[in-house]
Design goal:
Length: 301
């Protein structure tokens, strides 16, 4: 049952927003609408294209019924923080918010990317404790990835073309088992790692084309995760599959973080399979199951 303080007067349907710029590409509206329908919750999930100059006004509008909260994504995950009343432990740790929950007239910022990525990793055949992991990128998603890997006891090597931003990430998170690497170190680091996680927009539909790695640079064994989910197989994942590595795109993380957000707004267990199928259908049906292109998805001989 939806908490009483989130029910609006006159039985008006609840509302949840997605604050993004741009927003048309998102599959979250389809995924969350399917979750509300499956659980019988009378609510609407609205995608809102919010330019940075309009973010404060958009957040202020969430403070009263029928709003229950929002998701927040690029480019607002960090910028939204000053406009909120409280942050969860995860949001404080990452310095970023992707979920807002209204509690009375107060807005609480949370970050479901961290548990979302942790749950997605469970599909991969890797023991992370003591393993070497290479992370590409230093944006908001990379913060969640590095935090999860650090909690699991992995040794993390972080590469980003902007050295200062990567250094800031490690300083903010206080990761003792992490270090920055430069372009000259990257090939050897990748070859020797057990897990490679790609968090940039390289390979994304509409983003920079190609792979973020030089040709032929891949782990010798283990798994490759690319947080891009459109297309389902980026050039990096295509190359990893050809080499026989376990691969996973960004769809499992998307679904799991969406489920965590749904539960924060409603107090109701998320219908995970329903959300996964809806997300996959919104992407045109990647045809391999929403749980991802994972350990058993190897290229045929």
């Amino acid at each position: 049952m939806v908490p009483a303080d989130l029910r609006s007067a006159a039985h008006e349907p609840g509302r949840v927003a997605l604050l993004a710029h741009p927003v048309a590409h998102s599959v979250s509206p389809a995924m969350q609408a399917a979750a509300f329908a499956a659980t019988g919750i009378d609510a609407r999930y609205l995608a809102m294209d919010v330019p940075p100059a309009e973010l404060a006004a958009a957040v202020a509008g969430l403070r009263s019924p029928p709003w229950w909260g929002a998701n927040v994504t690029v480019p607002h995950k960090t910028a939204v923080v000053p406009w909120l009343d409280e942050l969860s432990a995860s949001a404080r740790r990452l310095g970023a918010v992707n979920t807002i929950v209204r509690r009375g007239d107060r807005l609480v910022g949370d970050n479901s990317d961290l548990p979302g990525f942790a749950r997605a990793l469970q599909a991969l055949p890797i023991e992370l404790s003591g393993a070497r992991a290479v992370v590409l990128g230093a944006g908001g998603a990379a913060r969640a990835v590095v935090a999860v890997l650090a909690d699991a006891g992995a040794h993390i090597e972080l590469f980003n073309r902007g050295h200062a931003r990567a250094a800031e990430l490690l300083r903010d998170l206080g990761c003792e088992r992490a270090r920055l690497i430069d372009a000259a170190e990257l090939p050897d680091a990748v070859a020797g790692c057990r897990l490679l996680v790609q968090t940039t927009t390289v390979g994304m539909a509409g983003g920079p084309p190609g792979s973020p790695l030089p040709a032929g640079v891949l782990p010798r064994s283990g798994a490759v995760v690319d947080l891009v989910y459109r297309p389902a197989l980026t050039p990096l994942l295509h190359a990893a599959r050809r080499q026989g590595l376990a691969v996973q795109n960004g769809l499992p993380m998307l679904v799991h973080q969406g489920a965590v957000s749904f539960e924060a707004w409603t107090g109701v267990a998320a219908p995970l399979e329903v959300m996964g199928r809806a997300a996959e259908e919104a992407l045109g049906g990647v045809g391999r199951g929403w749980s991802g292109l994972a350990a058993d998805d190897r290229p045929s001989a």
